[in-house]
Amino acid sequence: MDTWTLLLGGFAEALTPLNLLLCLVGVVLGTAVGVLPGLGSSMAVAMLVPLTFRLEPTGAFIMLAGVYFGGQFGGATTAILLNTPGQSSSMATAQEGFLMARRGRAPQALATSVIGSFVGGTIACVAVVFCAPFLVGFALRFGPAEYFALALIAFVATAAVVADSAVRGVTALGIGLALGVVGIDQQTGVARYTLGSSHLLDGISVVVVTVGLLALGEVLHVAAGARGVQRPQDIGTGRPWLGRAEVRRSSLPWLRGTAIGLPFGAIPAGGSEIPTFLSLGLERRLARRRGRSEFGRGAIEGVAAPEAANNSTTAVSLVPLLGLGLPTSATTAIMLGAFQQYGMQPGPLLFQDEGELVWALLASLFIGNVLLLVLNLPFAPVWAKLLRLPRHHLYAAIAVFASLGAYSAKLALSDVVLVCAVGLLGYLLRRTGVPLAPVLIGVILGPLAEQELRRAMAVGQGDPLVLLDSPIAAGMYSVLLLVLAVLLVLRLRARRSATRA
């Protein structure tokens, strides 16, 4: 009953005209910035933090939360329309969403995306309000061994499940891990694979790899195959709304994606990338089992599940931030700095000392989800008309924004050069049929897996059995072995069927 009373008080504060306007402005700005390759919600929050210092703390954090939610969805727009995700959390959505757009189903893909964001975000907000103690306790039980097991599951999921070929998936994962270890080793201080260049001492940022592989790589791929690729202006935008059959096909993926994304927001293990790819891999396996898979040709399930997982992770990530002072993503780390600028320290005492602010912020999450749905669902056909722009204008703009996004991260021209080099790598991978998802997962989670493995081995004094001491880690490895065994059996059956045929 106390929770309901506090939440209603939060709604009373969040629904004041000024705070409602700030939430609306945050959602709009976050969506607008999210569609630009290389920027995304973390960059938008970072740029707006200095401006919010002129506001009251409650209004400032309501606006930043709106930016956070809007940026997560905005990245899916260009991912679906142009195969150019605005941020790394939209990579999984791009795989099937872009194929839907090329089949004239761009509005349906966008509508599925925004509804999935609404479903995942709303359910996650309910979990944040009523299940925060359980989620915080779950996060506190994770140590180095659990984080390493989680990263290993993500590697297998992307290399063996998401990728059609295990060999190509492992190859792509190896490329990603190689890119991820470039720079100074944080534990020994030794420079690794820098080729003697001081510009590589800080490593290759995720922004550079994401923008290069997905944005410039796509531009080069389209430019090289211009004669054989359908022109964007020739692609029909199709029917503007979802039909009953499409809603039925998307309903369960929305719920499954939300369920996968919920626990990942509470642990610092790579943000939204892991649950989005896990949900994509699950839907692909379920579709193959049903025998009517559209994956590889534009499956609506491949858009619904990742977007629901994406936004559910986004909402839950505020639980460890507010309850423990533990940021689980780049965006929540920036918000932690904003709290400290206001003289507040997130943690268990925050709910007592700044209860009005916290509950108004939690209430604004529900409001932001509704605004996200109302603003973006009617505009799905409008966004789809981007496909009708002339190709040379469209892809030239992508190249420009991609370069600006990479440059704005550190204001370094060396990052622009790196983006071009990684873009060329992305083009070569596309030409050879090597999947991009394992490369990106390797870059994002490779350093985390290495760091947590070292910590676990240090705790166990070099004994590898320390990785199995935890029941959670042992359970994760058991699930991993079970999945690998199932995959092996299914592939052997497929080979026998093909041989008989």
From TrEMBL:
Q: What positions does the domain DUF112 occupy? A: 20-440
Fetch the Pfam families from UniProt. Answer: TctA
* Keywords, in A-Z order: Membrane, Transmembrane, Transmembrane helix
Where do transmembrane segments lie in this chain?
60-82, 109-135, 147-163, 203-224, 318-339, 359-384, 396-429, 472-490
On whether Methyltransferase is a keyword of this UniProt record, the answer is no
Write down the superkingdom of origin.
Bacteria
Q: Which PANTHER family match?
A: TRICARBOXYLIC TRANSPORT PROTEIN
Protein name (database record): Tripartite tricarboxylate transporter permease
Query: Which organism does this record belong to?
Result: Saccharopolyspora cebuensis
